[in-house]
Amino acid sequence: MESINERTVERLCLYRRLLRNHAKEGRKFFYSHDLAEMAHVTSVQVRRDLMYIGYSGNNRKGYETDGILKNISNILDTKEGQKMCLVGVGNLGKALVNFFSDKSDKLTITALFDIDQKIVGKSYQGIHCYHISLLKDIITEKGITIGIISSSGKSAKEIASDMSEAGIASIINFTTTPLNLPETTHLEELDLTASLEKASYYAKLLKNKEKKPAKKKILIVDDDPDITSAYTALFESRGYSVITSADSGSGLKRAEKDSPDIILLDIMMEQPDSGFMFLHEMKEKKLEIPVIMSSSIAKATASIIDVSQLNIKSILQKPVDLDELVRTVQKYI
Questions:
Q1: Looking at the chain, which residues constitute the CATH 3.40.50.720 domain(s)?
Q2: Where in the chain is CATH 1.10.10.10?
């Protein structure tokens, strides 16, 4: 049988699990984008994988669920099934036995091994537990092909070596001890301690991110690119997030979409009164965002409009004193 790369095998296992649930819901067909969404891969990847296993879909109905399940099972399983053994019948070992008990009719744990006399010679979940000294004999006698190691890490290397010598083809290692095995034995290493520590690290990282206050957001609406660039550099260097727009129309859309904490607004842009039209539209849309206006006609403007009605916090004369601009933003943001 032609070997399939590990990532593809992992996806096929996932597809089968998802499609079995799909079939239980009475769904006889599916499209590649349906399975892609469930498996968190692209629909292109799904189609490529299904073509690889020799199955094509129907443009109208999509893929036949039962047909795909049958094809995947033919690739992943053997007709007669495979026998497994588990070494280390402690808390983790017992949990694994319970987990595997009803997961597959093609994979069966048929022997347990330990050194603890409290369980050796007895059965757990109907499976006999042998002393570890009988490992090689029982593997050969029962034709076991898959071994699971959930014992202490100190003995993992010796156990794996004995399993491999006895003819075990695949080993799943749940200990923290890394193993080196011959190419004739496939190894899956599932280090739960490393996974927990990794989860702990990312939990700490994400919690620290949550603690950091979100950057205050400034929207600059000005048609002068030099001013926009200067303001952007000024406020980004002080830790603000800056959004820019070169006209009142797009500026209003950004104000609605991004909800900035404050707006720096020019008065004369595409039209002499663009800034005023912007403010009136903000009022109609009930956007309660503080505004700092700036213009070469700032003084005249301040004397003819009621700033309180348009949520204007300040009107600054161009060219604007940058220190004054920063103080004004800090005051109202």
A1: 82-196
A2: 6-76
Give 86-117 pLDDT, tens digit per residue: 999 999 999 999 998 877 788 999 999 999 99
- Contact present, 135 and 162 (Cβ < 8 Å): yes
3-state secondary structure of 291: strand
Look at residue 200 in the predicted model and tell me its pLDDT.
Answer: 95
Q: How far apart are CA 307 and CA 310, in angstroms?
A: 5
Q: Considering the domain 82-196 in this protein, what is its CATH number?
A: 3.40.50.720
Residue found by looking up tokens 């007709």 in the block: 79
pLDDT digits (tens, 9 = 90+) for 152-203: 888 999 999 999 999 999 999 999 999 999 999 999 999 888 999 999 999 9
**Cα–Cα dist 33/74, whole Å:** 24
Q: How far apart are CA 147 and CA 159, in angstroms?
A: 10
Q: Which tokens hold the place of 259?
A: 């909800």
Q: Which two tokens stand for residue 330?
A: 């800090």
- Domain at 6-76: CATH code: 1.10.10.10
The single residue listed with the structure tokens 């004054």 is: 324
Residue matched to tokens 């959004």: 243
Q: How far is CA 42 from the centre of its chain?
A: 14
Distance of alpha carbon 195 from alpha carbon 90, whole angstroms = 20
pLDDT tens, position by position, 230-271: 999 999 999 999 999 999 889 999 999 999 999 999 888 888
Which CATH number describes the domain made up of 217-332? 3.40.50.2300
